[in-house]
Specification:
InterPro entries: 6-blade_b-propeller_TolB-like, SGL, SMP-30, SMP-30/CGR1_Lactonase. This protein is an all-beta fold and 307 residues long. The protein has one domain: Neuraminidase (6 Propeller), CATH 2.120.10.
Length: 307
């Protein structure tokens, strides 16, 4: 297992890390329904409390935080781990929200795409046109599970479209360095797919078994589920991997470059910051920690960040 530095602990299922220009890292705490800024050495502060289940987070072109709110889970605490399962008892749907990091003001932008209700928005990435792609992971119920997809929306709240349907619990999402590929990881199939991007919000259909235009890239074996992902400067897709507990680094050609173990079976997300984007920040959700470690390659400079 790689050596790492603990940035914060005592977090209630952290996810969605965003490395800010001031050196802090903002994370969501899904179980607690809040957004928290972490400074290192255990220092942290709550900057917003949207409630529900705050999940994926990204900085928009207007300096606001854009949040995928999954609406909430139920939880178990066992063997030193906080484990989500099923929809919260008071769940009524998911949403995309905009948050002012200075004031904590929360504004709901989208709850539907036309007649399609957002069930459990999960991960988000902005493109160079100022719009964003996001996954809807859906919700699990006692004897059923949502069939969901991938959406594209404008940051001003004026337009949202379902771009891909169906997928099996899509989770992580990211863009290649040139913006021509959209990567999507499915949780329970532990498969990584890519789509060819034709223009902002538009994907090439091509040929696939489901008719969505998805191209298979990589599948994990063994006891693995896929969570959120980030893309590094070499174009590798770094997928947070549940079960084995770590980051699966997959090349654009679909080869496993390396597996970075973390020791937490609920390793859920990764982002980069620091000098030359060589510091990886990883959320260890089961044990409630945010950690950092030196990464062998720089992370990818995201739109609206790291530039």
């Amino acid at each position: 297992m790689h050596s790492f530095t603990e940035i914060a602990n005592g977090l209630r299922f952290p996810e969605g890390p965003v490395a800010m220009p001031d050196g802090s890292v903002i994370v969501v705490e899904i179980e607690a329904g809040r957004i928290t800024r972490c400074w290192g050495d255990g220092k942290k502060e709550v900057i917003a409390t949207p409630g529900g289940g705050p999940n994926g987070l990204a900085l928009g072109p207007d300096g606001m935080l854009y949040l995928c709110n999954n609406g909430g889970f139920e939880y178990l605490e066992t063997q030193g781990l906080l484990i989500p399962h099923g929809a919260a008892r008071n769940w009524s749907g998911g949403s995309i929200q905009r948050i002012d990091p200075d004031t904590g003001k929360v504004e709901t932008l989208y709850t539907h795409a036309g007649e399609v209700q957002l069930r459990g928005p999960n991960d988000i990435v902005f493109d160079d046109a100022g719009g964003f792609w996001f996954t809807d992971h859906g919700k699990n119920f006692e004897r059923s599970r949502d069939i969901v997809g991938v959406f594209y929306a404008k940051a001003d709240g004026s337009q949202i479209e379902e771009a891909v349907f169906p997928m099996e619990n899509p989770n992580g999402i990211g863009l290649s360095p040139d913006g021509k590929r959209l990567y999507v990881a499915e949780t329970y199939t532990a498969k990584l797919w890519y789509f060819d991007v034709e223009s902002p919000g538009k994907l090439a259909r091509g040929e696939s078994l489901t008719g969505t235009g998805a191209h298979f890239l990589y599948g994990a074996g063994g006891y693995s589920w896929f969570d959120s992902l980030g893309v590094d400067s070499a174009g590798n897709i770094c997928v947070a991997t549940i079960g084995n507990g770590g980051i699966s680094v997959v090349s654009p050609q679909g080869e496993l470059v390396e597996f970075v173990q973390t020791g937490d079976p609920f390793t859920t997300n990764i982002c980069w910051g620091g000098p030359e984007l060589r510091t990886a920040y990883i959320t260890l959700s089961g044990t409630g920690r945010l950690i950092s470690l030196e990464w062998p390659r720089p992370g990818l400079a995201l739109h609206n960040l790291n530039r």
